[in-house]
């Protein structure tokens, strides 16, 4: 027990989880998930699926959510660096439409728990990034929803993005056709 530190974010339902890393000159070991530690920290979710994706620099995925079958997500980066964002879509929430973002990287080993009822997305800031996440419900392809990454009413401050179309180093933002055409809130 006690292998994680859980920090509540300014928006209820979002948490930063920092695992205890045991390292020496040979490398490191850490528990990336322990149900007992999560329960002790007040997080009692049940995960049903693990996912992994790889993306190149400038890829922006999201903002996605499921409408009738919302997913809680425990996300982390095992290679590279991303800026990860959640937007509150819970009806009646005092923070409806507000966003919170955190940098996740192989170096900081932080995890981000995004409860059900949030849209989620991320921007790859390193040459490549491998992104792993556990979800609390299965993916339902006919239940997808999404929001525009640059919705002015949400006002996400994506780091390193200039002119709304490229990163500081000139790398163009790379969105799928679907993500380029998502509606505003």
Note down, in words, how this protein is organized.
This protein has a 6-stranded antiparallel β-sheet with strand order 1-2-10-7-12-5, with no helix packed on it. The protein is built from 2 helices and 15 strands. It is mainly beta. The chain has helices spanning 35-40, 177-180, and strands at residues 4-8, 14-19, 22-24, 27-29, 49-56, 60-66, 73-79, 81-88, 99-105, 111-114, 118-124, 128-135, 144-146, 161-162, 166-167.
Alpha-carbon distance between the two ends: 41 Å
The helix tally amounts to: 2
Mean pLDDT: 96
Low-confidence stretches: none
Helicity, in percent? under 10%
Element pattern in H and E? EEEEHEEEEEEEEEEEH
Tell me about the largest β-sheet: 6 strands, antiparallel
What is the spatial order of strands in the main beta sheet? 1-2-10-7-12-5
Q: In one word, what is the shape?
A: globular
- Round the Cα radius of gyration to an integer and report it: 16 Å
Spell out the blueprint of helices and strands:
Layout: E1 4-8, E2 14-19, E3 22-24, E4 27-29, H1 35-40, E5 49-56, E6 60-66, E7 73-79, E8 81-88, E9 99-105, E10 111-114, E11 118-124, E12 128-135, E13 144-146, E14 161-162, E15 166-167, H2 177-180
Antiparallel strand pairs: 1-2, 2-10, 3-4, 5-12, 6-11, 6-13, 7-10, 7-12, 8-9, 8-11, 14-15
Task: Give a nutshell description of this structure.
By secondary structure, the chain is mainly beta. The chain contains two helices and 15 strands. It is globular, with a radius of gyration of 16 Å.
Task: Describe this protein with a few key phrases.
single chain, 185 residues, mainly beta, 5-stranded antiparallel sheet, 2 helices, 43% strand, globular
């Amino acid at each position: 027990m006690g292998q994680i530190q859980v920090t509540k974010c300014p928006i209820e339902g979002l948490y930063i989880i920092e695992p205890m890393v045991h390292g020496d000159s040979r490398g490191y070991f850490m528990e990336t998930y322990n149900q007992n530690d999560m329960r002790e920290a007040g997080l009692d979710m049940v995960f049903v699926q693990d996912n992994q994706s790889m993306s190149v620099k400038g890829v922006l995925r999201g903002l996605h959510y499921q409408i009738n079958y919302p997913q809680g997500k425990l996300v982390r980066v095992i290679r590279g660096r991303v800026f990860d964002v959640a937007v509150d879509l819970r009806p009646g929430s005092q923070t409806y439409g507000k966003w919170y973002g955190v940098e996740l990287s192989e170096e900081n080993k932080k995890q981000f728990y995004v409860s059900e009822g949030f849209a989620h997305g991320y921007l790859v800031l390193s040459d490549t990034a491998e992104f792993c996440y556990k979800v609390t419900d299965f993916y339902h392809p006919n239940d997808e929803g999404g929001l525009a990454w640059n919705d002015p009413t949400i006002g996400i401050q994506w780091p390193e993005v200039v002119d709304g179309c490229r990163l500081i180093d000139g790398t163009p933002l790379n969105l799928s056709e679907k993500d380029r055409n998502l509606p505003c809130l």
